[in-house]
Queue: 2 jobs
Job 1
Amino acid sequence: MKSVFYAALLVAAYPFSAFGQTASDLLNAADTPQSVLTYGISYSQQRFSPLTQINRQTVKRLVPAWSYSMNNNTGEESQPLVYNGVIYITSQNKTVAVDALTGKEIWNTPVDYPPDTTRVVCCGIVNRGAAIYEGKLFRTTLDARVIALDMKTGKQIWSVKSGDAKDGIAMTSAPLIADGVLITGMAGAEYGSRGYVEGYDPNDGKRLWRHYTVPRPGEPGADSWPDHAANASGGSSWTTGSFDPELDLVYWGIGNPAPWNALLRRGDDLYTNSILALRPKTGEMAWYFQTSPNDPFDHDNITSIILADLTINGKPAKVLLQAGRNGFYYVLDRKSGQLIAANPYVKVTWATGVDKETGKPEWTETTKKAIAYTEEIQTWPHITGGTNWYPSSFDPRTATAYVNTTDYGMKYQPDPIDEIKNLKPGDSYRAVKISPIFNADGMRGHLRAIDPLTGKSKWAIPFKSPNWAGTLVTAGGLVFTGELTGEFIAVDSDTGKILWQFQTPSGIIGQPVTWEHDGKQYVTVTSGTGGVYVLKTPDPNLAHVPPGGTLWTFKLIDE
Amino acid sequence: MIRAYRACRPPLAGGLPFLRRCTTGRVVLCALCLLVGATSRALAQDEAAARGERLYAKYCSNCHGDDLQNNSGVAFDLRRLKADEHARFVNSVLHGKNAMPSWQGVLAPAQLDDLWTYIRAHGYEQ
């Protein structure tokens, strides 16, 4: 069945396979560790590489091969793609192709946008990466366009306007190519936009479908907004989903309701803070699972979604894993959306647990207060969440997830109703006063090795500033990630011991990848501080971390 | 939260030089100020700064840092603005600069004044 399916795709893709990878290349991405073909490294987004040349023993010989200036000061969150000896990478103001072995620029295509664009960019002036397919590179822009460039020359082939700053919409995430459709999300729940996920024809940019994430009166889910389905807003979709080709389902994380202040929006507020299982060809929803109904805390459910095969009670299970921003680690049956496990992986005080049958959180008294009164409360985790957009990785051999966590709480107080009753798209849709409550030990974050079924950490290493970078795990027994103070680190995946580190010129908020060329393994990552934590949160530990984007590639030096 | 703002400062850049030398704090200790009847003006300044603080939290803090505390260098540290840079401030805020958005049509002139009062009250160089 599976091979018939793959063969059909191969035939479909054959005429276009002259340059740029095909649909079948994408399906096999996990088994072609030489390249990095898609966001998440493979459709399952495990960010696991079977490469072993760089390992616990050899990592001490890891040295820079080259570095390249991104000529951008606003932060580098982009995941590099590596194909046929070329690295493709984005920042908010450009897309570039760089020779993977020498670090020499091949082409550089600027991104321009109107001056009012970043009014509705809440959380870092960034872009998180591209998709490549049949000779084209696809990316989104801050002024909410989806564009296609020629992979050889960087010349623009098409550009489509998806949303507008006036409606509170921006775009920062990497598109996903699934079943021949380009799928993308948008940002803007902090500005009252109405969220959606979209599918485009990669050939010409024709929009094939738009799936709104919050309903209008009469639509499914409208009764979960008893106060005002007519203006239901939020539910942005600002990270990249994963894809199960066999089930033909794309899994997309959907963000918080708007405004954060919940005084005027009772009900579950579907489909905010949910995972949606969508058909890639049509955008039709097969199922949804909501993590934080009626959320006042911006527990924006956009953290990375990992597809894995686990053994549960002796039986094989096709699951979906998500370290939720609300502090619970979720394991779902990815065919049905049924909850299998939900356990806290950081300190959680807003709910005492999650009901196994309904999947609903059991609220504490402080949460009940926070949705109804303007009194100040204290709660964990902070709006930043137990983790955030930066993706985690998963080692399928040990069933362990490697997650950078933020470990602090907040004082929280909703503004009075007067502040929210006349909001319109484009306005600031927060309307709450928040200040962080940090731990006495001065440690604001950890890198954790988590058992998805229990949420428990096998090990955890503390950091003064939370790591705002993705993780990568390899069969060489290493977890790669970066610190906001610039250290690029390799950690023993069994023990949590830092085995190697390299000081890059700025803070790391990027996504490490590894690849192979002529039998040699390389590791690539960006440096360049930014992102919402760094911009907004006072942190004395970051006083001497200058901005400035660079792209780095490392290899083993000969013995 | 309203902090102690420098009393006796003129609303915008310029003004009489002796007024600039007044003491920091809500209580006006400066006899000269009393002489020129500036107490009510000081209170007006406090109110403008408090309005500016709210505007800042809403429109600017996500890039320029909570309470003006900017540890990234990604966006300009607004505490660096000097008394004679009012024109630069207005120009940048209305028209934008690179990733810095334009705010024309969103912020009214009076709101720009409130923001300026708040920012200057915390300036490195008074």
Note: Chain A is about 5% helix and 35% strand.
Job 2
Amino acid sequence: MTTETKIVTKNLNLHYGEKHALKNISLDIPVNRVTALIGPSGCGKSTFLRSLNRMNDLIDNAKIDGSVLIDGTDIYHNGIDVVELRKKVGMIFQKSNPFPKSIYDNVAYGPRINGIHDKKILDEIVEQSLQRSALLDEVKDDLKKSGLALSGGQQQRLCIARALAVNPDVLLMDEPASALDPIATAKIEELIYELKENYTIVIVTHNMQQAARVSDYTAFFYIGSLIEYDETKKIFTTPKEKQTEDYITGRFG
Amino acid sequence: MKKKIIGWIFVFSTAAATLLIVSAIGFMLFEIIRGGWGKISWEFLTGAPAEGMTAGGIFPAIIGTVLLVLIMSVAAVPIGTITAIYLSEYANRNSIFTKLIRFAVNTLAGVPAIVFGLFGLGFFVQFVGGGIDKFISGDAQLHWGQPNILWASLTMALLTLPVVIVSVEESLRAVPRDLREGSLALGATKFQTIIKVVLPNAYTGILTGAILAVGRGAGEVAPILFTGVAYFLPHLPSSLSDQFMQLGYHLYVMSTQSTDVEATIGIQYATALVLLALTFLLNFSAVFLRYRLRAKAI
Amino acid sequence: MILNRTQTNGISTDRNTRSSAHHYTASKIAGGNINLKKRFRIGEFIAENIIKGVSFISFAVIVLIFIFVFREAAPIFSPAKQTSTTNTELVQETYGEESSTANETVTEQKNKSVESSGSEGEATAQNLLGKEWQPVSENPKYGLLPLIVGSFKVTFIAVLIGAPIAILAALYTSFFAPRKLREFLKPAIEFLSGFPSVVIGFFALVTLASLFQNLFGYQYRLNAFVGGIALSLAAIPIIYSVTEDALSAVPKFMTEASLALGATKWQTALFVVLPAATPGVFAALLLGVGRAFGETMIVLMATGNATLMSMNFFEPIRTMSATIGAEMAEVVFGDTHYNVLFFIGSILFIFTFILNAVAEFYVRNKLQKKFQGTA
Ligand SMILES: Nc1ncnc2c1ncn2[C@@H]1O[C@H](COP(=O)(O)OP(=O)(O)OP(=O)(O)O)[C@@H](O)[C@H]1O
Ligand SMILES: [Mg+2]
């Protein structure tokens, strides 16, 4: 890998109570690239993703050790402010979760909690964020409409806009298109492609084609372990591990 | 064959028991409506008792009840809501502190109403009220150290506190986890998330809790027996240190201590009907709100 | 503006030399676009502590109840109780004690200048265990036995009548009732718990009392039986509701397994589900007992309030709670009678406290073990 690295995990282990959900994961995620996480259900993709912005802290019985460095800073060091971390590392959830507020208020949520209340500045941020998430044209006449009134694909892009408004470096996406129809999915994929110019993106997906289409690097997880990690085209053409090959060719039990 | 008969008897008896309860409720409702309906009139609802309580209306008792539950809510709803927020948002399930609070809430729900009355008398009236008097006037005269509507309302607030807590906590837990995570993932703090996302989505639950508490408080008598209620007052309470009349107590007094039953039985039924109508109205609206809340959560 | 970002690629090749964690420095952090250093959020801190403090009130109240109810009861145990000379008018109500048609009357005993001196008026242990409750007389007697017996008697009647009805109704609701009916039944019966107890008491006083007297022809219009029936109306919704919850918490697979083995619906209900829900039903009973035992207004209005001690269910009784309710407003603060009433309150409190604690403990432990394995 020749590009510079944004996120480094080292010997990352995570336990849910007795369950060893992540086993010694060491992975370098390059800056301004899309890295896809694939693997069978329950292998720990979401868990890994959520450990990158410490969302697992919210789970009572989750215990983590090892380290995650973002820009060289260990985010699990106890001098780290989790709230600030999450501003820097945004997250898009599998099930779109707009707040039951207007489109405008959804996008302005992040800036407002950061103390920005100037109407002009907020307007600008909302517009730019919606623009970047390719939603502006569809909603610009009706920003007062409830976010819940949008279609599934629009809701997901609203969530992306909401995350962008906080101005993160990294976007974590957990199967962002799994609940969407093909057209909405294509839009999201297109968006991801554009966003990677400015953001480091880590995306979990179940869809092999999607991984192949949008990502630059792919990591294959299996039962909590990282089996193989390489450039996407290598993973999909010449995987080194048998398990990877079985999985991507759909020969997986 | 024999088994079949046993089964039949069993099923029949369960149905009969259910029918018995439902008919007891129906009978009670019917009796009170039948006895009280004719007496209800505008004059009755807006007039004061007259002729040694054998005539006139129940206006002071209605107002007293309303004031009681209002002051009670001012204390019980915020405290209950905040406790519910703690239990649902902050509490670590396994910490001793949390277990203590939970245990206290459950215990509070089971304390007999009359014990609250005793507590109100010993704590609010004598200890707090008496303390204030001593502080202000130096032992001389009793002002706050006597039963009044404030102490009665606060006593009632303690009784209804668990009602608020349980109801609000349920509604907070019904707020989808997604929304909380969505907010936290944007870098909102826990408190920001609670204020901006959790509470706005739980307000029907808070309202439900408040209404249930009010319904409960409107119907209880034992806690106020010696913390502030009065048998008869010629005027409405005008300050927190006044005593007050209350519907339930009025009913109790009229039905057990009236010397002229013939003259007052109509008033008794009508008072019971008004009290019942008031608590039902409150409970119904709470059930309705809760139903809508649950429908929304699904 | 905010999108005017500078993609500082914070870290470079030296990352391999960093021994993971504890190497970050302030300058490194400053290199990123957001300072990740932990900050102290005063608002957050204050909010959290206020919330925690307020939620502590519930616990504090329990402790305060203990302290204040017991504190006022305590003087009866101190041997050197001062003699008190009081100049008051004491009123004691005993209604319903009279025969059928004579309605409730108020007997007033005006005792000017009650002098309780020496050992006679004191609430010694012996006095408290006595069989006579005559707190207002020349020679006051504070025998609690008739009150305790009265409380247990009426509670016993209420639960004996209410529990089977409530449990059967819960079984009907969760097993045999058609779906539509079930959706009506649960709220309808729980709706009974919304009846103010003073209304139930009133109903018992004016309607049930006469009805049952005509039906059974006993001597006293108001008595333990009438009180017990009325009280069961208060206990039924609790027992019903908790039992119904316990029944529907029994996992579906148990029901289905039984039905699949060819058992009928009623056999499944009676021999599979009900036993599985026993802890819940037991807790329901305890809560029902607690509710009945602590209830004041219903028994005050419907039991006749005479301090008789007999095994006859059709004689008037007086409960502990009713005694407090009837007499507290008339006593002199601080005298023995007052203290004894608080002592009775302490007994009520402790008793219901224990019942609730056992119910909660029992349900939580047993039910969880049963359905969630012993892991
Ligand atoms: N809160 C939790 N408590 C206990 N175990 C958990 C918890 N969350 C996840 N797990 C377990 O950890 C493992 C990894 O879960 P994770 O959600 O990360 O899988 P995933 O790869 O994202 O699966 P999917 O593709 O289905 O989303 C699974 O076996 C799951 O059952
Ligand atoms: Mg997942």
Note: The radius of gyration of chain B is 23 Å.
